[in-house]
Amino acid sequence: MLQLKEELMLKLKNRTAKLGVVGLGYVGLPLAVEKAKAGYDVIGFDVQSQKVEMVNEGHNYIGDIVDEDLKEIVNSGKLKATTDFSFVADVDAVSICVPTPLDKYKQPDLSYVVNSSKSIAKYLHRGMLVVLESTTYPGTTEEVLKPILEESGLKCGKDFFLAFSPERVDPGNKQFKTKNTPKVVGGCTSDCTEVAAMLYRSVLESDVMEVSSPAVAEMEKILENTFRNINIALANEMAILCKKMGIDIWEVIEAAKTKPYGFMAFYPGPGLGGHCIPLDPFYLSWKAKEYDYHTRLIETSGEINDYMPEFVVENAMKLLNSHKKPMNGSKVLLLGAAYKNDIDDMRESPTLKVIEHLEKNGAEVIYNDPYIPRFNHNKKEYVSVDWKEVIDDADIVIITTNHSCYEYEEIVERAKLLYDTRNATKDVKNNREKINKL
Prior knowledge:
The chain is of the alpha/beta class. The protein has helices at about 1-15, 30-35, 50-55, 65-75, 110-120, 140-150, 190-205, 215-245, 250-255, 280-290, 295-320, 350-360, 385-390, 410-415; strands at about 20, 40-45, 80, 95, 130, 160-165, 185, 210, 330-335, 365-370, 375, 380-385, 395-400, 420, 435.
């Protein structure tokens, strides 16, 4: 094993190693681009031929990637994409960056990870490094991936290296991208950890922390997102109570932020979105049952956050009623469909649940989002409208995503009724009396 480690580390050092990335989405494509920019030859694998074609044509579909960077590395031959997993045989190290969703019972769906592992196992060779980046429950790397890969006849820690290094992608973050976000790496053996850490150090400009096992790395990722989930739930519960008490939660939070220690600001909203925070804590809740432990705080916070879209619609209904207007038959304009501001990502967007509750109560829903021109939900197509053309006819306008491009002064002035779930109108100076907040 020592010789295999030295050979791979030498290849990493002089950039002669060929690298693979399985899954060319929000995590995988930026990682593949950074690996290519670091001087490696990179092969991207994806089962979706459309993504593969776009990458090979240099067409970017991920907001956090600079278009020119992708074109340059594709044109130079440093990055190519394929649906043919037989090319795994050509790579020295491969990262798995596939989705890990929940099923309808909120239980982990590892089918993408399992299928990717089986595809890799067919072409696994001695001296190869496999790193899982997909967020999952503690134990996945050693309990799920390792046995599948060892079906090849090769042994982990003896013939190939295996590690877990959680992705830390925050779409739309202007400061922290793939290249400068610190990494955590935990391998099945110390050699596995060392090799995987060297790979990331050769690609990234950030610190790489080595931990004692894949399970520690898997658990720390769950802790990151559970921390946010619970604190957002606290902010949401405070918002519900403040609404009942006639107190401005946003002003409360700004006041609390003046304390220089012991407080970290989290903000309420219409619900949780994105691939991580609404889903990942449930991976831990599911795994905890194996140890006869009930994660009460995690599940309670999930219930609070899941209730927020309904709470938004209940308050919109009260606003309409106060103006002698029923929700049934009202025209509702939603501003924003993305799960957070200034991105084109709709994964788990709370706007979808808001729409469901509005339509269940008979509302006619239209939306605008400059980043999302159209989408399908529950077998129905929604097309973004020009808000300036329809706002005067809307019975109520609900701000569901606080995109910075919106002209909030005009929105407040022209809306018959305005419900701001994101405190997007905090800087509006005129017509403040028209603003209703979460």
